[in-house]
Amino acid sequence: MPTKYSSGADVMNTSELLQLYAAGERDFSGKKLSNAYFRGEDLSGIDLSASIMWGVNLSNTSLNGAKLTLTSLIWADLSGADLSGADLSGADLSRANLSGANLSKANLSGTKLPEANLSDAIMPDGEIASNDLMKEASAHAIAKRARH
Hints:
Blueprint: E1 3-4, E2 10-11, H1 14-22, E3 31-32, H2 131-147
Parallel strand pairs: 2-3
Antiparallel strand pairs: 1-2
């Protein structure tokens, strides 16, 4: 049974989530999964909305059609992940590694991407992210810090 975190989120570990997912559960909204390891797993259609997932390893994971609205994915490793059709609206991907990730047809409205690594990621419009996009994201983060 998950325990409560001070923010009100239920704390889960990797094996617990994977067991429930394999049993057909898809709604894991509001969970805390910091430093969890899901490398290469198939989590298609999972709902992790409003979850706290700092430093999570989701590299090469299938998250197509996932609901990640308002999810905190700071420092997450999403390199090579399939996020096609995922809803990442309002998610915080600060300093996340999205290199080589597939974001085609993903909803990125309001998504925070300061200092995120988007090299070679397939963006929602089908374009491959360039170094210019990465520099723009970093410049935005630097400008924001200078204002505060």
